[in-house]
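S.,

As promised, the fe (ii) ion run. Input:
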Amino acid sequence: MTFEKHVAIDFTKVKPSVMKMQGISETTMTEHFKLYNGYVNKYNEVMEQIEALSNDDVKAGQITHSKIRSLKTALAFALGGTINHEVYFHNLGGSGGKPSGKLISQIEKDFGSYERFEAELRGTAMAARGWAFLCWNKDMKRLLIVIGDDQSTFPVWNSRLLLACDVYEHAYYLDYKTGRAAYLDAFFKNVDWKDVETRFEMALK
Ligand SMILES: [Fe+2]
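Predicted complex:
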């Protein structure tokens, strides 16, 4: 087996605009990158440990406690934490407003209007314990807004993640204390809709 380590993205270099946002401070982002790097490191560590399991360990799966259970639950959490944050950071650093092109047409088709879509995404983000996600569901051929209550919950199969909104308190506590609604105002002011549109184009292919 050959496991290739995932290398954490340096968003300060790949997307420096995320360090100069209105309403989401550089300090918040710097701290958030530390958490993201932690998920990447844990993903690499867990994958190495899975590869190192003996055949006996692999066969000894058990639901209360077993090495493979611990590693597989950690894998889903660490990989979810890695991917969720990579999409979220790429989604930020823009100038907000509204999407355009095929994405706005699909939003209007599936949600009635942009205003209704944004209200539903905000409401979902207020109701979530970890993440609100916009995804393109390939089976239903429609956009869906869903909750991910922790890093490892993304409940809808065959969905491509387009927009991730982190609502764990670490995403806003330094800037707004417990004021999640004010953070969501800032989130929408900084969405990079071009990034979301590109993800949608890729999902349609
Ligand atoms: Fe986060």
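DSSP finds nine helices and three strands in the chain. The chain has two domains: 25-91, 101-204.

- D.
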